């Protein structure tokens, strides 16, 4: 599969917006524009650079240009239960060097931090929703002012970086191919062996391990295992699916390794995690 490089915005129209109703973009993609993504409904796995986390309503991220990212919805989720609002924009949407002025130092720092991807606390995001509403109702000129207000708001609240500096050069075909291959074949352990991945990257196994660690600031197997665990944690919402079936469906070849890796990344066993989900569902 070719890499999903997207050139979304022209200089003449520096902002675009969309509402995703199909559970999000389930493949790794990237583009020169920055992207704000607000989850209003739905659950799944969010990948930004080397970060792999679950997403839920009120999840808001700001992802910098050329940072690989994806949103993959929980399987068997009703389409009507899924909604993500996106705003994509060029860093100079308000004018060349506009945010470089001293008065906008906090906004510029926010834009700089987006090179690692940032996420904001749900409590603060709830207060931001009216600004998003106004943005999506505004004309092109109004969207510029609304986006400035949104960025000003975000620059004043806490945020957490998701990854190391995670942007990919447009010319880095190898990184894009590796990420695509991993996400496309996460359920097939034989396709994600170190030897097979080295062939995909046209490197020796040792060179591939070093390359992946340097490029994504983590070990290859650690990345794969965490991705599998996060996909599995969402499948555990379906109380009828056997845990063994879930383990195999995300690429684990035996239940003991699945339990060990799940405990490592989630701090509890899959059975305990499912029990917590059931309690939350019952009390909500």
TrEMBL record:
Residue intervals of the HTH araC/xylS-type domain: 176-276
Gene3D superfamilies noted in UniProt: Homeodomain-like
A Pfam family it matches: HTH_18
Keyword presence, Heme: no
GO terms for MF: DNA-binding transcription factor activity; sequence-specific DNA binding
Superkingdom in the source lineage: Bacteria
Keywords, in A-Z order: DNA-binding, Transcription, Transcription regulation
PANTHER family associated with the record: ARAC-FAMILY TRANSCRIPTIONAL REGULATOR, TRANSCRIPTIONAL REGULATOR MTLR
Protein name: AraC family transcriptional regulator
Lineage: Bacteria, Pseudomonadati, Lentisphaerota, Lentisphaeria, Victivallales
């Amino acid at each position: 599969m070719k890499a999903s490089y997207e050139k979304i915005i022209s200089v003449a129209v520096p902002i675009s917006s969309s509402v995703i109703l199909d559970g999000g973009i389930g493949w790794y993609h990237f583009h020169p524009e920055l992207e704000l993504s607000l989850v209003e409904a739905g659950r799944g796995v969010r990948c930004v650079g080397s970060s792999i986390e679950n997403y839920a309503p009120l999840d808001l991220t700001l992802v910098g240009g050329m940072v690989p990212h994806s949103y993959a919805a929980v399987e068997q989720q009703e389409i009507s239960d899924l909604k993500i609002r996106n705003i994509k924009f060029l860093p100079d949407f308000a004018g060349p060097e506009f945010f470089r002025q001293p008065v906008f130092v906090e906004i510029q720092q926010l834009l700089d931090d987006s090179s690692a991807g940032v996420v904001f606390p749900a409590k603060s995001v709830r207060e931001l929703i009216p600004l998003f509403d106004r943005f999506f109702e505004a004309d092109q000129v109004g969207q510029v002012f609304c986006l400035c207000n949104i960025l000003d708001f975000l620059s004043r609240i806490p945020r957490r970086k998701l990854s190391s500096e995670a942007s990919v050069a447009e010319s880095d075909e190898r990184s894009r191919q590796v990420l695509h291959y991993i996400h496309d074949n996460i359920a097939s352990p034989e396709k994600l062996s170190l030897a097979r991945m080295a062939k995909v990257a046209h490197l020796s196994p040792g060179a591939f391990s070093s390359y992946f660690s340097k490029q994504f600031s983590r070990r290859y197997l650690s990345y794969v295992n965490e991705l599998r665990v996060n996909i599995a944690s969402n499948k555990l919402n379906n109380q009828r699916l056997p845990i063994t079936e879930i383990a195999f469906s995300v690429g684990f070849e035996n239940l003991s390794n699945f339990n060990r890796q799940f405990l490592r990344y989630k701090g509890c066993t899959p059975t305990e995690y499912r029990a917590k989900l059931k309690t939350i569902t019952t009390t909500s």
